[in-house]
Amino acid sequence: MSNPGVERYIAAANETAARRKADWDEMKKCKFDTCAVHGLYTMNEALNSNQGSIIEPTYMSTSQTYRDSDEMEAALSYQIPTWCYARIANPTLYYFENTMALLETYGSDIEATCVGTSSGMSAIMAATDSFLSVDPENPDAPRNFVTTCQVYGGTFQQFNIRRKEEQGIDCRWVVNSNDMDEWASKIDENTRFVYGEMPSNPGLAFFDLKKVIEIAHSKGVPVIIDNTVGTPALIRPLVLGADVVIQSVTKTLTSSGLGICGAVIARKNITSNFGSDMMKADYAMYLKALPNRDWGQNLSPMNAMMSLTDMRTLRTKVDLFSRNTEQVAEFLEGHSGVESVSYLGLKSHPLHELASEYMYLVDSEFDAQYGKKINRYGHLLSFNVAGGVANARKVFDGLQRVWRATDLGRVKSVATIPAISTHSQQGDEGREMANIPGNMIRLCVGGEHPDDIIRDLDQALSLVDGEISYKAPSEFSYGGASDSTMARK
Ligand SMILES: *Cc1c(COP(=O)(O)O)cnc(C)c1O
Known about the structure:
Elements: H1 4-27, H2 32-38, H3 43-49, H4 69-76, H5 91-104, E1 112-117, H6 120-129, E2 144-148, H7 153-166, E3 170-174, H8 180-186, E4 191-197, H9 209-218, E5 223-226, E6 244-248, E7 262-267, H10 277-281, H11 283-289, H12 291-295, H13 301-311, H14 314-333, E8 338-342, H15 352-358, E9 380-385, H16 389-398, E10 403-404, E11 414-416, H17 427-434, E12 440-444, H18 450-461
Parallel strand pairs: 2-3, 2-4, 4-5, 5-6, 10-11
Antiparallel strand pairs: 1-7, 6-7, 8-9, 9-12, 11-12
The structure holds pyridoxal-5'-phosphate (PLP).
């Protein structure tokens, strides 16, 4: 029995939906920078709902009140736009999520939606989990997924330990991601999704995405891409045919480094042999309304707001960081203390040509400075220090401007030794498979003037012939805030 009170709210909601669709269509006429700056926060929205505030409001409230029981019923059955409770949705997240969806679909008429998550790892967890559920029609069927082995260390652990060891789901590593036969041979009727990271962190592996999508889709398997390192300013996997994109928004998208944040962005009507029609029709909204509601890995509105603020200048920042990184990479390549440099922007990189087919600075052809399509390769590079692990540690320890931190995507340059940090947990074997030697330093160049970063690297590289100095514990003490000594037990 339909309830006329509820129906009245649904009719009003349809008007809102139509207005939002019009806002989306209007934004689709704008360039990338305009989408990044405004998203779906319109003047109309500001004047009618937000006291005219020109900046999106940050709603810290845990929940929303309703006019009456009819509105509550319509809202809690997801028949009207609502945010009800901040574990499920929130108006600030709405602006953040729509900006993400606009940027990841830029330059196409693909319809996509986004759900914000508490971190990049929870985005990966959310994006993959629903594909890995037990099939109710065939509960004993084996389940597998196929993924590049060159992935972020946390992703490697999530797949290898949580999924494979703890849940018994077969994780099939693709060792050479440019061998299309390897992809094809590992995908079968029990494959729930194909996963890739390109460029990969830290190895900068890069594969021919369009070909992999073709193979996966020919077998009815969806493709999930981690676009953290590329960012939508350089590459937009959804536009190339991928079904789902995940972002560690924590990184380049929030380059100021003020908060952990993730996102799942999915096209509507994804390809998948597995899953309900409802799940496939609008995957990100499905995740938001159902599984994420129940698992609870939502994003805090404060973090959404800080990310949104950073994202407005994404394109120009990625351009600046990329240009700086190119200069630093060229310097390192010419230095005798460096065994090798891996940066997709260097002509010496074996994947330079392939990457050049994919990685363009969005809208450079409309930029007065460039006036044509130009390649940019992001701000992640890695280099191997000549002479092995001890020398790499001396160089790393000698850095005075570049921060030693397991982080990337910052406006400040940061470096790490992946083998002892981001990629320590996967062990020698896992690192060998992913080609991460102990003398590799990962460097993410930020917005400083590149001359100053080069000067710092130059003095650090000059230290390799010196003695290793061990600092006495009396010179420092630890603060009281650390809670991660568990691993030492
Ligand atoms: C950091 C990172 C993640 C994980 O993101 P968090 O926000 O730290 O949870 C996933 N993928 C890539 C490529 C990353 O660099």
